[in-house]
C-alpha cells in the first residue's frame, strides 16, 4: 500500500474514533428529563413547563392541566408569558396541599386577567420549579432569562415566591438585574424589598420588584395596632425566635422587638435553633425548656419568630408544661397561615387540656381572610348606626372595605364558573389560608400592569419588560388594584402601602376540632388607607 494511502486511512480511523467518543459522551451527558423543559436532578424535577406537567405532585395535576387548557385557549391571541416560580415538590402532604392552593389562585387569576380587562395581551402562565427551598433556582433563572429574550415566549413577569430565603433573594436579584419584572405575592421578609424613604423617594435594591404582602415589620405594626385598639397594652410579653439564618424569622424577630409595649417588662428574649424550614430536629426538647422558663415568668403573650412547623411544636409544648390556670396567646407572622393544615386530630385536645378550656391560642397577621370584609362592614354599619340614631343608612360605605369585598365576590364567581364548566382543580379552593387569595391578587395585579402598558399600542405588539416594570409604581390612586386581600396601592419602591393585615386566631375551643376565626383588621400605619388610596407625600 502506498505511503499516502496508509496516512489517509490512519487519519480516517482517528476521525471515526473521535466522532464515536464525542457521540458516546453526548449520549452519556444527555440530561434525564421529567417533561419538556424539566430536568431530573438528584430526584427533583427542576425546570419550566406550561403544558400541564405536575412535577410529580399529584395534588396539583388537575390545576396544572387547567392552566395548560387556558394557555391553549389564548395561544392564537396576542399574549405574553408569566412564570409562577415556587417549589412544586415535597414529601409532606400539608405542603403539597399548600402548593395546590397557590396554583389554584394562579389559575383563577390568569382567567380573570384574561377575561376581566377584555384587552390584549393575554397571559400564558408557566410553572417553574426551582427545587426544594429554591436550591436550584440558578438553573431555572437561566431558563427564564432565555424566555425573556425569546420572541416566541415573551416572558414579561415572574411571580410566586413564597419563602424569604437567601436563594429566593438571589433569584429575585438576578431577575431584576436583567430587567425582568418580579411581583412577589407571598414574601413577607424585609430583606427582599426596596426601601421607601420618608420623602417619597425609594432606594431600589431590586429595580422592577413589586410586593403585595406587607413586610414583617408592617405586619408586626398591624398586630400592635389591633391589640392596642382592644386595650391590651398591659400585656406581659416575651420574644421566642429561631437563630437559624432565615430572612423571614430574622425580620419578624426584629419587627417584634421594635414594638413599643406600654405594660410591664416581660422576661428576656429566648432563642431556639431549627435544622431547616421543614425539619423538627431537636426543637421539641428545646421548647420544653423554653416553655418551663416562660411558665416561671409572668409572661402571658409570646411573640414567636419562626416557621409554621416549629410554631406547632412550640404551641403544643407550651400547653403540655401545665402552668396551672394560665392561658397563653402566641402571636406570629404570615407563615402561620398554614398552621391549621398542619394540626393533627389530637393536637386540638392537647391545646385545650383536661378542663376543656383553651390553654393556648395562636394569633397571627394573616395576609387575608375571606370573612374580613363582610365582618368589618357589619361592624362599621353597627357603629355608624349607634352614632347616627334615626338617620337613614349611609349610601357610601368605606372604600377600603367595599372594593376588596367586590374583588372577593369576583373570585368566588370565577370558582363557580370553573365548576360549571366542569374544570377540575384538585379540590374546591379553600380561601381560609389566604394562599389562593394572595396569588390570585398577584396575577390580576400583573394583568392590570400589562393592560396599562399596552394601552394605546397596536394589538399586534406587546409591551416590553421595561414597560411592565415601570407600571408598578403607578398602581395607586385611580389605578389602585382592587385585591381580595385589600386595596393594592404600590409605592415608588413597589411596596404595598398600608396594606391591612387580617388578624386571625386559631382557637382550640371547648370540644371537637378547633377553628380558625377572623377577629379584626390591623393597619401598619395605625389608620385605614386614605380615600382612593392616594399615598401621602411622606410615608412612615
List the helices and strands and how they pair.
Elements: H1 3-29, E1 33-35, E2 38-41, E3 44-49, H2 61-74, E4 79-85, H3 93-116, E5 122-129, H4 137-149, E6 155-160, H5 166-177, E7 182-184, E8 195-196, E9 202-203, E10 209-211, H6 216-229, E11 237-242, H7 247-257, E12 270-272, H8 283-296, E13 301-305, H9 308-320, E14 328-332, H10 339-342, H11 347-352, E15 360-366, H12 372-387, H13 399-420, H14 435-454, H15 465-471, E16 481-483, E17 486-488, E18 501-507, E19 515-522
Parallel strand pairs: 4-5, 4-6, 6-7, 7-10, 11-12, 11-13, 13-14, 14-15
Antiparallel strand pairs: 1-2, 2-3, 3-5, 8-9, 15-18, 16-17, 18-19
What is the percent of helical residues?
40-55%
- Amino- and carboxy-terminal Cα gap: 92 Å
pLDDT averaged residue by residue = 87
Q: Largest sheet at a glance?
A: 8 strands, mixed
At the first level of CATH, what is the class of the largest domain? Alpha Beta
Descriptive overview:
This protein has 540 residues and is of the alpha/beta class. The protein folds into 2 domains: 35-214 and 408-452, Rossmann fold (3-Layer(aba) Sandwich), CATH 3.40.50; 217-366 and 503-522, Response regulator (Rossmann fold, 3-Layer(aba) Sandwich), CATH 3.40.50.2300. 40% of the residues lie in helices and 17% in strands. It is built from 15 helices and 19 strands. It has helices at 3-29, 61-74, 93-116, 137-149, 166-177, 216-229, 247-257, 283-296, 308-320, 339-342, 347-352, 372-387, 399-420, 435-454, 465-471; strands spanning 33-35, 38-41, 44-49, 79-85, 122-129, 155-160, 182-184, 195-196, 202-203, 209-211, 237-242, 270-272, 301-305, 328-332, 360-366, 481-483, 486-488, 501-507, 515-522. The strands form 4 sheets. An 8-stranded mixed sheet has the order 1-2-3-5-4-6-7-10, with helices on both faces. Strands 12-11-13-14-15-18-19 form a 7-stranded mixed sheet. Helix 12 packs antiparallel against helix 13 (399-420). It is globular and about 105 Å long. The model has no long low-confidence stretch (mean pLDDT 87).
Amino acid at each position: 500500500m502506498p505511503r499516502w494511502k496508509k496516512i489517509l486511512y490512519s487519519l480516517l480511523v482517528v476521525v471515526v474514533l473521535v466522532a464515536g467518543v464525542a457521540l458516546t459522551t453526548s449520549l452519556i451527558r444527555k440530561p434525564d428529563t421529567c417533561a419538556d423543559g424539566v430536568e431530573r436532578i438528584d430526584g427533583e424535577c427542576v425546570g419550566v413547563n406550561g403544558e400541564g406537567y405536575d412535577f410529580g405532585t399529584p395534588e396539583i395535576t388537575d390545576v396544572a392541566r387547567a392552566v395548560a387548557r387556558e394557555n391553549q385557549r389564548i395561544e392564537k391571541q396576542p399574549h405574553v408569558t408569566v412564570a409562577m416560580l415556587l417549589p412544586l415538590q415535597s414529601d409532606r402532604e400539608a405542603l403539597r396541599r399548600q402548593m395546590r392552593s397557590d396554583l389554584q389562585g394562579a389559575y383563577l387569576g390568569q382567567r380573570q386577567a384574561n377575561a376581566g380587562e377584555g384587552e390584549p395581551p393575554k397571559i400564558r402562565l408557566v410553572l417553574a420549579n426551582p427545587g426544594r427551598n429554591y436550591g436550584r433556582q440558578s438553573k431555572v433563572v437561566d431558563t427564564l432569562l432565555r424566555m425573556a429574550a425569546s420572541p416566541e415566549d415573551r416572558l414579561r413577569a415572574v411571580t410566586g415566591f413564597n419563602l424569604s430565603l437567601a436563594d429566593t433573594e438571589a433569584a429575585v436579584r438576578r431577575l431584576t438585574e436583567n430587567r425582568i419584572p418580579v411581583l412577589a405575592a407571598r414574601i413577607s421578609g424585609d430583606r427582599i424589598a426596596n426601601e421607601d424613604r420618608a420623602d417619597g423617594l425609594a432606594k431600589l435594591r431590586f429595580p422592577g420588584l413589586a410586593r403585595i404582602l406587607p413586610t414583617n415589620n408592617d405586619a408586626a405594626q398591624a398586630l400592635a395596632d389591633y391589640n392596642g385598639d382592644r386595650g391590651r397594652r398591659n400585656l406581659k410579653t416575651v420574644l421566642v425566635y429561631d437563630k437559624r439564618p432565615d430572612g423571614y424569622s430574622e425580620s419578624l424577630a426584629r419587627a417584634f422587638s421594635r414594638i413599643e409595649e406600654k405594660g410591664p417588662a416581660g422576661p428576656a428574649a429566648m432563642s431556639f435553633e431549627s435544622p431547616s424550614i421543614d425539619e423538627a430536629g431537636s426543637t421539641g426538647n428545646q421548647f420544653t425548656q423554653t416553655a418551663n422558663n416562660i411558665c416561671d415568668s409572668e409572661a402571658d403573650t409570646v411573640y414567636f419568630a419562626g416557621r409554621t412547623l416549629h410554631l406547632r411544636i412550640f404551641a403544643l409544648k407550651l400547653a403540655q408544661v401545665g402552668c396551672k390556670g394560665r392561658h397563653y396567646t402566641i402571636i406570629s407572622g404570615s407563615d402561620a397561615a398554614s398552621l391549621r393544615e398542619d394540626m393533627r386530630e389530637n393536637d386540638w385536645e392537647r391545646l385545650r387540656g383536661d378542663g376543656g378550656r383553651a390553654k393556648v391560642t395562636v394569633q397571627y397577621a394573616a395576609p387575608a381572610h375571606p370573612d374580613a370584609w363582610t365582618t368589618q362592614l357589619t361592624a362599621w354599619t353597627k357603629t355608624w348606626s349607634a352614632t347616627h340614631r334615626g338617620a337613614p343608612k349611609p349610601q357610601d360605605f368605606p372604600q377600603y372595605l367595599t372594593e376588596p369585598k367586590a374583588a372577593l365576590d369576583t373570585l368566588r364567581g370565577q370558582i363557580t364558573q370553573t365548576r360549571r364548566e366542569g374544570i377540575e382543580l384538585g379540590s374546591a379552593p379553600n380561601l381560609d389560608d389566604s394562599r389562593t387569595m394572595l396569588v390570585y391578587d398577584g396575577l390580576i395585579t400583573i394583568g392590570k400592569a400589562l393592560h396599562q402598558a399596552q394601552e394605546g399600542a397596536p394589538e399586534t405588539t406587546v409591551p416590553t419588560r421595561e414597560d411592565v416594570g415601570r407600571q408598578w409604581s403607578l398602581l395607586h390612586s385611580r389605578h389602585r388594584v382592587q385585591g381580595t386581600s385589600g386595596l393594592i396601592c404600590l409605592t415608588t419602591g413597589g411596596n404595598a402601602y398600608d396594606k391591612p393585615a387580617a388578624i386571625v386566631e386559631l382557637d382550640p375551643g371547648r370540644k371537637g376540632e378547633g377553628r380558625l376565626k377572623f377577629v379584626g383588621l390591623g393597619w401598619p400605619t395605625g389608620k385605614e388607607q386614605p380615600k382612593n388610596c392616594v399615598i401621602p407625600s411622606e410615608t412612615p
